[in-house]
Amino acid sequence: MQTPIMIRGFAVFKGFLDAAAQAALVEDLRTVARAAPMRAPVTRGGKRMSVRMTSAGRVGWVSDRRGYRYELLQPGGEAWPAIPDRILRLWRDVTGLARPPDCCLVNYYGEGARMGLHQDRDEGDFSWPVVSVSLGDDGLFRMGGPARGGKTESLWLNSGDVVVMQGDARLAFHGVDRIRFGASRLLPDGGRINVTLRVVSPD
Ligand code: SIN
Ligand code: MN
Question: At the fourth CATH level, which superfamily is domain 5-198?
């Protein structure tokens, strides 16, 4: 396996997926989005996020006026589609874990979309890693520490890069300041997709 670059505990696998693997994942994600349409969620404060989202897996991540949480059903009442096999394989390859992730969150960043600094902390057990895959346009990924307001470091994530947040980085603040809309030709209409894989239940 490729040796990752380590930045503040974040393990960054540059160019982990080749062009064919990236295109295959995009096809898989189209199937997911047909079964579970992308939505732009609102936060507890009522602000609409610039990123559009959907999920696959046993549970999906949702945000609305009641806050952030995982749900067994889509807002429309249907179960979430299964996590595509290729994505489960990627999780196994990167983490070496037999335990599959419970949730595959799919974020789409159109022109001007961004994601503010946050921690991933809606899960029941932070000892499992979080795996994040970048597809399409470049995204400027900001990595901090366990406290808001601490020092941060930024890195452009390109299509095919994979980031693992584990150990000290598992509860580290992170976000995407901006994307280079149109930098990649992977998605015909431009934009960036980020796929985040997480174990949610503490079993
Ligand atoms: C996230 O933290 O949910 C997304 C990170 C990314 O888009 O790279
Ligand atoms: Mn996150």
Answer: Alpha-ketoglutarate-dependent dioxygenase AlkB-like (2.60.120.590)
Helix (H, G, I), strand (E, B) or coil at 118: strand
The two three-digit tokens of residue 82, written as one number = 């299964």
Query: Which atom, in ligand 1's list, is nearest to the CA of 163?
Result: 8
pLDDT at 203 over 70: no
Which is the closest atom of ligand 1 to the Cα of 174? 2
pLDDT tens per residue, range 40-55: 999 999 999 999 999 9
Q: How far is the CA of 31 from the centre of ligand 2 (A)?
A: 23
* Token digits of residue 163: 């980031």
Residues having C-beta closer than 5 Å to ion ligand 2: 120
Ligand 1 proximity of 115 Cβ (cutoff 6 Å) = yes
User: How many CB atoms within 10 Å of residue 136?
Assistant: 26
Quick one: CA dihedral 127, 156, 115, 196, positive or negative? Answer: negative
